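Title: Prediction job returns without error message
Component: structure pipeline
Severity: low
Priority: P3
Assignee: unassigned

Description:
Job completed but the reporter wants confirmation the result is attached to the right record. Sequence as submitted:
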Amino acid sequence: MKFKFVSVLTCMALMAGFTSCSNSDDDKDIAPEHGTRAVTLKANILGASDTRHVDDELAGGLKPAVHDLWAVFVTSGANIQKVIKLDNTEVTSATGQRVEDIPNAADAVYIIGNTSKFKLDGGAEIVDLNAITNSEGDLKDLMFNIANQYDAAGTGVNKSDPRQVNISGYTNYDNTTGSVTVNVDVRPSVARLEIAKISATDDSDSPLNVEVTHVFVDNTYTKIGLDYTVVPTDALDILAFNSESPEWTTTPANYPPNFCDAITGAAASEFTPAAPANVWSYYVTPGANHPVIKDASGNVIALNATPVIVVRLKDPSTTGAFRYVTVRRMKEANGTIVNEFKPGYSYYIKDLKFKIGQTTTVPLDPKTTYDCDVVVEIKQWVHVDIEPEI
């Protein structure tokens, strides 16, 4: 009897193997199956459904578009068990999508989307999710690339339509029961920083005409790993400019173009971006990691894991010279300091307002630990109002 029992199990394993061979090329089994289950996946695409904010009454964010969705089932901290290309309509419906033959060893799932239009960066090459071969670590080594967050036509970096981005979500689930339903919140994989206005005053808070030339975003990366802990090592992917960097003064054209804007026009006390965008906007990498920025002497400048905003203006008292506003810290309207940006959130600065006395001769002045704070509003795509601290 024992021999027959083993034979039955062997036959079942062979049948399971033949069944897996019938999968389409869009599905891929990566680990051996030691028992399987059916999983019903429900992808909840997060983001407001109304129009983007363009005026004083903030309307919130936009729900991201969905071009493709993949499920990657993993044993937490170990192997990838199965990769499946999902049906966009079915998996986002109220009933979800039922997927069969998920190995019992899987206890967590990633849902990653829009990889067909906004490719993930695997280091030396752009990779398809179906090319993953082994561990969850392989998956985390893939990166969301800021340069690949394109507009609908795929013609360039998206500055106007925040629906066109990579999207992702992750959750653990109970793998000790039979069939299981798993709900996964899916949101934009990057964060978005928006500035609606820049205004200047004298030290008595009266409007002051100045010539603003540039807005820069520093202290961030050009790409980030899927778990937001893996960071790039190539110097070109790390924005860690200090007070001595020539990009501020002589070569602003060499600053990474996805992270800066030139501002033209006559001196004024207020500056606003041109329609239809109505904001200066930047995709930035979320998470608690941020570059190490050092001063000219090699001392580390203490910063939060949020982007640093630098505004360059012509020095009103010295021809050919510049002054800088450095926003090292942002806070919400209730005074809460924003310590890091989160994926799927838009951080909106209604007015980056500074006094001329808060400007310095170099950005990120190592002699200054506090420049200016700004208020930021934070909401789902989620949008957050923040106040830059100046």
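Comment from assignee: result matches the submitted record. Residues 1-24, 49-60, 152-158 have pLDDT under 50 and may be disordered.
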